[in-house]
Amino acid sequence: MKRDLQAGFSVLEMTVAMAIFSMVGLAMAGAFQLVDSGGGTLRLMQERMAEGRVAMHHITRDLSMAYLSTHVPIDPVSKQPDKMGIRQMTFFKGDADSVDFTTLSHRRLVRGARESDQAQIGYYLERVDGEQALMRSVKSPLDDSDNRGDGYLVCRGVEEFKLEYWDARGGEKEGRWEDDWTAEQSDLLESLDPREANVTDDVEEEQKLDLLPYRVRINLVLNVGGDANVRFQSQTPIYLRRAFKFDALSKPGSSKGGSMPGNMNKTLPGGGR
Q1: Which end of the chain has less neighbouring CB within 10 Å, N or C?
Q2: pLDDT tens-place string over residues 204-225
Q3: Is residue 5 one of the residues assigned to a domain?
């Protein structure tokens, strides 16, 4: 009587099958690794793009509301302006890769905090965890120093941060981009006679002490992985270019006096003033 023998796989066939399955497994693992790596690059790109947009929003908003003030407290005894009694100093110090200034863009986020819309804000570069980062410093309320306040991280992977300041005091056609701009309240007060408080055209044309730049151009380049970079570029006007001239230092009847910068005695659309 014959016995039914069941056919099986030989050792060679099993070896070939295992080799094929191993190659397929390795190929699938490599594909998953590429997908994960691509996902990480995409996430990094999305994060840097979001950080860049937020950074440009903050920079343009803060710079657009920069201001200078010639306000000097009145001495209670002599009833005269007391420049030594200034407790809130305003200024604008801009370089090619950093800027510090006083602005009216501050937001009070903590209830009861002794803060206002006035603040000293700065943007500068600093190394964080081995890579260059853009920092934002905030100090409110103002004091009599230009020391920066607490710094906060705005965005990482900064390849370039460049600022330029448009000087058009001689006319828009003669305007040019400057790499730095400095205007300080202390220097401005030295050019003012407390009894007259007149800033002549010659002084305004010669010095950058009572005028802020017409606008600021911002260039920000972020690394989004490997050799890939993304560039953000914007310009923002500065609306309060002329320093505030308060009554304590303003000549009665002067068009440059009052609490608003510059000559505001102009007819507005609709016949208003």
Answers
A1: N
A2: 434 444 578 999 999 999 998 8
A3: no
